[in-house]
Amino acid sequence: MKRPEEIIIALEKAALERWSKGDTSGFAALSTDEMTYFDPTLDTRLDGGDAFKEYMSSLHGKFHIDRYEILNPKVQWYGDTGILTFNLNNYSLDGKITSRWNSTEVYHQIKGEWKLIHSHWSNPQPE
Fold this sequence. Notes:
Elements: H1 4-20, H2 25-30, E1 31-38, E2 46-47, H3 49-59, E3 67-78, E4 81-91, E5 97-110, E6 113-122
Parallel strand pairs: 1-6
Antiparallel strand pairs: 1-2, 3-4, 4-5, 5-6
């Protein structure tokens, strides 16, 4: 039986697999009605599952990532809430890094399922 942190990391990897093909619905399916979301392309926080799903839908099919790598994943626990933090590198076919990200994903167990309640993506400082 998988430990909860393994389940959360597997959910994130599955959503990222879909994301790398331009399919944003993986993250949308994980979200809750209370979802909040930050990323550097937005001026303000998105509030609510509907706003998050609408934003994800606007990006659907508009990008492709050849390969990605999750670095330093860590899950911290607070009751039925797991906070997953990690670094993400995206690569082109020739192995060059095309983008780097810092991520915080907050999962909460609802009726036996791990759901995404907050997501925050930021760009690390340039090297």
